Amino acid sequence: MVWRGDGVWRATRTPLGPGTERICQAADGAVLVDAWGPGAEWLVNRAPYLLGALDDASGFRPEHRLLRDLHRGHPGLRICRSEAVWEAALGTIIEQRVVTAEAWTGWRLMVRALGERAPGPLPWLYLPPAPEVLLRTPYHAFHRFHVERSRAETVRRAASVANRLQETAAMPLDEGRRRLLAVPGLGPWSAARIALGALGDPDAVAVGDYHFPHMVSWALAGEPRGSDARMLELLEPYRGHRGRVIRLLLAGGISAPRYGPRRSLHDWSD
User: Fold this and answer.
1) Is 211 in the same domain as 247?
2) In a domain, 197, yes or no
3) Which of 93, 108, 128, 139 could share a disulfide with 152, CB 3.0–4.6 Å?
4) pLDDT per position as a tens digit, 98-146
5) Which domain holds residue 103?
6) Are residues 40 and 71 in the same domain?
7) Strands annotated E in 42-182
8) 174-199 burial, b if ≥16 CB within 10 A, otherwise e?
C-alpha cells in the first residue's frame, strides 16, 4: 500500500488474479476508484466493502461518557472488510511475538524478495507473496526476513490452506473465526486481527495483546493496569461491537499511564 497525493494505492491478490486499485476522494465527497490487472473488476466491485459500506453501527449505543464522546467525534469510523484473508493471515503471523518495527521491516523484505511487481503504473508497488511461493520456501530462508522457524512454519501451514482461509469471507463470522482458529499457530490474537481487517468483524477482540487490556481498563474503569479477563468483562456490555470500542479508543489516542521502561512487545499466546 502506498499513500500519495493522488490517493491511496493498494496491491492485492483477488479471486480473479492480481490487481491494483487507487482510491481517492473527489471535491464533492464522492469516492473514485481506478483499478488495473486481472483483478481490476473485482476490486472496483468490492471497493464499497473495503470502505466499510457493510458496517452497521446502528446497534452501538455506548453509555460510557468517553465512548459516547469518541463515537460522536468519529462519525466516519467504519469497520472495513478487505476480504484478503490470506494476506491478512500472512501479515498477522509476521507480527506474532515481535515488536512492531521488526515485523514491518520483515514484511517489507519479504514482499520485495518473494512478491512480484503489481499491475498498474507504479513500478515500486509490489504484491504480497503468493501462497505457493511461500510453500516452496524452506524455513531457513525466512531468517533474512527476521522470521524464526516457528513463525516460518506457521506461514507455510497457512499457505497450505490458503484457499480454505479465503472461504471464510463467504461464511458467517462465527464459522469464519472457528476455521481460522483451526490452523495451528493461529490463536485468538491472530484470529481476531484477521477477522477485524479481512472479514469486517466489529466484535473482534485481540485477546493476548500486551497493550489492549491496559488501554480498555484505563479508559472504561480508570484502572491503569488490566488483564484479558478484566478487558473482556468491561467490554461485555458492548458485545457485538467490542472491536469497535477498541478501534474508537485507538482513534481517540487513549492509552494507559506508562510505568517503567517503554515496551512495545506483545504477549501473544498464538
Assistant:
1) yes
2) no
3) 139
4) 998 999 999 999 999 999 999 999 999 999 999 999 999 999 999 999 9
5) 85-186
6) no
7) 116-117, 126-127
8) eebbebbeebebbbbbbbbbbbbbbb
pLDDT of 7: 95
Helix (H, G, I), strand (E, B), or coil: what is residue 237?
helix
Residue 260 pLDDT grade (very low, low, confident, very high; cuts 50, 70, 90): low
| CA distance between the termini of the chain | 26
Cα distance between residue 90 and residue 132, in whole Å: 13
Residue range 240-268: average pLDDT? 79
> Both 46 and 68 in a single domain?
no
Helix axis angle for 228-235 and 242-251, nearest 10°, is 100
Length of the chain counted residue by residue:
270
Question: How far apart, in whole angstroms, are the C-alpha atoms of residue 96 and residue 59?
Answer: 32
**How far, in Å, are 9, 104, 142, 148, 165 from residue 126 at the CA level?**
11, 15, 18, 23, 22
* Nine cell digits for residue 160: 497450505
Mean pLDDT in residue range 212-220: 97
| DSSP state letter for 139 | G
| Residue 193 falls inside a structural domain | no
Average pLDDT of the residues of the chain: 94
Q: What is the mean pLDDT of residues 10-19?
A: 97
239 and 156 assigned to the same domain:
no
The model's pTM is 0.90
